[in-house]
Write a structure and sequence with these properties.
The protein has one helix and no strands. The chain has about 50 residues and is an all-alpha fold.
Length: about 50
C-alpha cells in the first residue's frame, strides 16, 4: 500500500508477471511429463506386438 492507501502498481505488476510466468512453466512441465508417460506406454505396446 502506498501513502494514500493506493496500491503500488509497479510492484504489484512485477509479482503478477512472475506468478504468470511460473504458472505457464508449471503447466508446460505437466504437459511434457504426461506426453513422455504416454510415449513410454505406446512404446511398451509396440514392443509387445
Amino acid at each position: 500500500m502506498g501513502a494514500r492507501n493506493v496500491f503500488v502498481f509497479p510492484r504489484l505488476v512485477g509479482y503478477s508477471f512472475l506468478f504468470f510466468i511460473l504458472s505457464i512453466a508449471t503447466i508446460l512441465a505437466n504437459k511434457f511429463v504426461r506426453l513422455n508417460e504416454e510415449v513410454e506406454e505406446l512404446n511398451l505396446g509396440l514392443e509387445k506386438k
